[in-house]
Design a protein that fits this description.
By secondary structure, this protein is mainly β. It contains six helices and 18 strands. The protein has a 14-stranded antiparallel β-barrel. Helix 2 runs antiparallel to helix 3. It is globular, with a radius of gyration of 27 Å.
Length: about 425
């Protein structure tokens, strides 16, 4: 016990002594002069089914109950992945710069509720159902540099980033329709245009191209070409200490400067229709054939430049430290614009409220509630910090639906390792 107490006291003294190197207050403060770090987070969720729906002795599928309990927007699943490696150096406490490289991706798949209305209730004579299935996905690599300084009492951080799109699936809608007429005729149609934009030539990988495998030189040329198609955006933070380190507030944002580009497109049009005669029920009972058309178009590959901007973000954030370096409360409120400057633009709010308790800056715990990237998040995190090495971990329940975010309808995991002086 004595040895443990001495180690705890030593690390606490080391943390507080070196923390004094950070002379200026910040909303997201750094406690090291020189810091290397790696952090990663990934998760997935849906807005309807929880783990308790699967871990049962007897699983009963009741489509009518399934439809009745489903949210109005249908059944949505989402995923994301983030990874970053970085280096930061603090000079004199009033000037800091850093570099980073990372990976950023997200996506979703949404089945419209009307699809499950048809499956659970069937269709009455003279009625029709229209349903949609929507999908989206993106994946980027990025690198950039950050610069922080103080001007006239304001803390200003500028982070220009160079991002390279790897894969992009624009907001895509598959349309489904079922109908019947009073004469007994029944019909169903499905129609979707699928497009995938890529940094590499997908025809060489998945198509019927007769070309032999690329040489190392061609692969290098293709990688260099993809890297040259990157875009530029600027992240900024401007903050002001209203009551020293007790209360600080500011604005943050990410704005586009130059779009990224993808030069390769893979597309496919799928169309299907089935229809009976006016004696539809009789045809079914007698096993007669239907009028049908099923066309899965050829997969087409082309070199078409598609410009992409990452989501725009803008908002307010702050930190309240009522007891020095022990308790932190961090609110954030803003909005984001996904697929800006396109016909599928999507605007949605973002918010976060977290509370952190630190014990001598050696041990810490954080509770957080947030709505980010169109998902509700309830997170708990833990920190252990010897100053030379810091380990941050976090787990969260998440869902596109607020109530379901408390019912294990999805989860995410966060881990970060930082070390320095």
């Amino acid at each position: 016990m004595k040895t443990t107490s001495k180690l705890f006291a030593f690390f606490s003294f080391l943390n507080f002594s070196l923390l004094g190197a950070n002379l200026s207050a910040e909303i997201h403060e750094y406690s090291r002069r020189v810091e290397f770090g790696v952090e990663a987070e990934a998760g997935a969720s849906n807005n309807f089914l929880g783990t308790s729906d699967f871990f049962q002795k007897d699983i009963v599928i009741d489509l009518q109950e399934f439809y009745a309990d489903m949210p109005k927007r249908g059944w949505k699943t989402e995923f994301f992945v983030n990874e970053r490696n970085y280096f930061n150096m603090d000079c004199s406490g009033k000037f800091r710069f850093g570099f980073f490289v990372g990976l950023d991706g997200s996506g979703y798949l949404n089945f419209g509720k009307d699809l499950f209305a048809f499956l659970s209730e069937g269709i009455k004579v003279g009625d029709s159902y229209d349903a949609e299935i929507n999908a989206y996905a993106d994946l980027y690599v990025e690198t950039g540099a950050s610069l922080r300084t103080n001007i006239g009492g304001l803390g200003i951080t500028l982070t220009p980033s160079y991002f390279v799109p790897l894969v992009y699936v624009p907001s895509t809608t598959a349309r489904l329709k079922w109908s019947t007429s009073s004469s007994g005729k029944m019909s169903a149609t499905a129609d979707v245009d699928l497009k995938v934009y890529s940094a590499i030539d997908l025809e060489k990988r998945f198509g019927s191209s007769d070309e032999e495998g690329d040489s190392n030189e061609k692969v290098i040329d293709e990688v260099v070409h993809a890297l040259s198609n990157g875009g530029v955006d600027l992240t900024f933070e401007v903050e002001y200490p209203f009551i020293g380190r007790v209360l600080e507030a500011g604005v943050y944002g990410r704005v586009p400067i130059l779009p990224g580009k993808l030069d390769y497109e893979m597309s496919k049009h799928i169309y299907a229709t089935v229809a009976t005669s006016d004696n539809g029920i009789v045809d079914i009972l007698n096993g007669n054939s239907f009028e049908n058309e099923f066309d899965v178009g050829d997969t087409e590959y082309s070199e078409t430049t598609h410009k992409i901007h990452r989501p725009i973000r803008l908002g307010l954030e702050g930190v309240y430290r009522p007891h020095g370096e022990t308790i932190y409360v961090r609110p954030m409120l803003g909005f984001a614009i996904r697929s800006p400057f396109t016909n599928s633009v999507k605007i949605y709010p973002e918010y976060s409220l977290s509370g952190t308790v630190k014990f001598y800056n050696f041990l810490g715990m954080t509770l957080r509630m947030a709505y980010l990237n169109q998902a509700f998040i309830n997170q708990v995190g833990f920190m252990i910090n010897t100053h030379l090495i810091e380990l941050d971990t976090g787990v969260a329940l998440r869902s596109p639906n607020f109530i379901r975010s408390f019912k294990a309808s999805g989860a995410s995991v966060y881990i970060a390792l930082k070390f320095g002086l």
